[in-house]
Amino acid sequence: MIELNEHWCKGCRVCVFHCPTRSLRIASRFTMRGIHPPELVEAERCNGCRLCELLCPDFAITVMEAVSVNA
Predict the structure, then answer these.
(1) How does 35-61 read in b/e, with b if 16+ C-beta sit within 10 Å?
(2) In sequence order, what are the residues at sequence separation of 6 or more whose Cβ sits closer than 8 angstroms to the Cβ of residue 27?
(3) Which of 21, 32, 61, 68 has the most CB atoms at less than 10 Å from its CB?
(4) Which pTM was predicted?
(5) What CATH topology corresponds to 2-63?
(6) pLDDT tens per residue, range 22-70
(7) How many whole angstroms separate alpha carbon 33 and alpha carbon 41?
(8) What ranges do the domains of the chain cover?
(9) What is the pLDDT, as a whole number, of residue 68?
């Protein structure tokens, strides 16, 4: 799962351009700062490589590992 801090994101699109699974896209909506933030297209596509998190110049993305519940 990808968590985005929209207050820190400046909409540079680095995360979208470098995502190897094309899990991210630029949203059509605006944030309060007037930018189009990235958004997760389909959570199943994301392989958790953390490339978006590592390349984000504003530290606005955090990749969280999925937690599986075994009953």
Answers:
(1) bebbebeeeeebeeeebbbeebeeebb
(2) 36, 37, 38, 39
(3) 61
(4) 0.81
(5) Alpha-Beta Plaits (3.30.70)
(6) 999 999 999 988 999 999 998 888 999 999 999 999 999 999 876 666 6
(7) 22
(8) 2-63
(9) 61
Contact 51, 17 (CB under 8 A): no
Segment 5-9 long-range contacts (CB within 8 Å, at least 24 positions apart): 5/59, 5/60, 5/61, 5/62, 6/31, 6/32, 6/33, 6/37, 6/60, 7/33, 8/58, 8/59, 8/60, 9/35, 9/37, 9/38, 9/56, 9/58, 9/60, 9/61
Place of tokens 């470098």: 18
Question: 22-26: long-range contacts (C-beta < 8 A, 24 or more apart)?
Answer: 23/47, 24/52
